[in-house]
Amino acid sequence: xxxxxxxxxxxxxxxxxxxxxxxxxxxxxxxxxxxxxxxxxxxxxxxxxxxxxxxxxxxxxxxxxxxxxxxxxxxxxxxxxxxxxxxxxxxxxxxxxxxxxxxxxxxxxxx
Amino acid sequence: xxxxxxxxxxxxxxxxxxxxxxxxxxxxxxxxxxxxxxxxxxxxxxxxxxxxxxxxxxxxxxxxxxxxxxxxxxxxxxxxxxxxxxxxxxxxxxxxxxxxxxxxxxxxxxxxxxx
Lengths: 111, 115
Fold this sequence. Notes:
The complex is a heterodimer of chains A (111) and B (115). In chain A, a hairpin with a 4-residue loop joins strand 7 (61-66) and strand 8 (71-76). Chain A is globular and about 45 Å long. Chain A has 111 residues and is an all-beta fold. In chain A, 35% of the residues are buried. Helix content of chain A is 0%, strand content 56%. Chain A starts with a strand and ends with a strand. Chain B is mainly beta and 115 residues long. Helices cover 0% and strands 56% of the residues of chain B. Chain B has strands at 4-7, 10-13, 18-25, 31-37, 44-50, 53-57, 64-70, 73-79, 87-94, 105-106, 110-114. In chain B, strand 7 (64-70) and strand 8 form a beta hairpin. Classes of the chains: A mainly beta (111), B mainly beta (115). Chain A binds chain B through residues 3, 30-31, 33, 35, 40-45, 48, 50, 88, 92-104, and chain B through 4, 6, 31, 33, 41-45, 48, 50, 55-56, 88, 90, 92, 94, 96, 98-101, 103-109, 111.
């Protein structure tokens, strides 16, 4: 299975702190995406990083990708209570519509 | 319009019932997806439609029957389900591409309970 493993499974931080979550995967990928899911709701796309990119920023989000280690990290800076959600990485393979989701990190930001 | 809509939001059905889940998008996307998500687990792909044709079936039991009537609509017909099929069913769409895997836009899901 290409399913990614995310670490940590759960993370609890104070508002204003930074949150870092990691994703490891098993096979070569075309791109890696990060999604957020609020409890019992649909997923919201956050950011996509391609296999030839090493770092990408979007607002308070910073994503890194290390294809040699088959790993990625998502950093959320200056966290807010509204960032409380589950975060999933998802990997895609060139020429194939399927994305495979990682196990997820549940983030709680305490006001 | 970047919205994917799903109806109903909640569905309770018996094991002998027949019901359908509906999904709609107006973003001009040509790929549409059904996922199943159990509590505290990641979404699991069930089906992919590309240009209104079924392109991926992840060995889903025949009691789940997908249908894509046109490029904007995706249905999931349910028949003779089991209690273990209770889950959140998510629909998603993306621009179809055979060159890369695109961003997927998700609907809010249908919470299904099978009694």
